[in-house]
Amino acid sequence: MGRVRVFLSTFEKPLDQKRRIVVPAEFRALATGPFEGVFCFASIEADCIEGGGLALFDHYKGLIDELPFGDPLRSAMETVVLGGMHRLSFDTAGRITLPEEMCEAFGLSDTVVIVGLGERFQIWSRQAFHAHREAARQAARQGLAALREAQRPVRAGGGAP
Predict the structure, then answer these.
(1) What is the CATH number of the domain that holds 62?
(2) Is the CA virtual torsion 97, 82, 35, 51 positive or negative?
(3) What torsion, rounded to 10 degrees, do the Cα atoms 77, 121, 41, 109 define?
(4) Which domain holds residue 97?
(5) How many domains does the chain have?
(6) Three-class SS string for 34-86?
(7) CB-based contacts of 94: which residues, under 8 Å, 6+ apart?
(8) In the prediction, which pLDDT does 54 show?
(9) 67 lies in a domain?
(10) pTM assigned to the model
(11) pLDDT at position 1, please?
(12) Is residue 58 included in any domain, yes or no?
């Protein structure tokens, strides 16, 4: 069985005056592809930067390609993902320079939080991430309780409700 290659964990990193952050070594090792760096764009699901390696790019490109040319969702995805994507190369210290417009849009200043989410990662302002993490914890707690409740009749042999 092969080694699992996903972005994991949460890191707080300083953002310098030139908008550079050191990408965790574990993340740099996963971001192999056509260049030494990562792909980043404004996240669709949250107020943060989403990024990853070639696998993430290929995933979004595959989703877009499934939609017919001219479809409004395809056009929206092309605009947001492909049109908003930046190729951020690693410098010799393992840093990337975040685009100024993204830093302004998401309030990224002195410290950012980098969160591994499997085949992708997100870059948040510290304050926004702490609020998001708490909301996610509550949603996960409620969702898990609802899932367990739905599974209970099946486990008891009663079938689906």
Answers:
(1) 3.40.1550.20
(2) positive
(3) 150
(4) 10-126
(5) 1
(6) CCCEEEEEECCCCCCEEEECHHHHHHHHHHHHHCCCCCHHHHHHHHHHHCCCE
(7) 22, 23, 25, 28
(8) 87
(9) yes
(10) 0.85
(11) 45
(12) yes
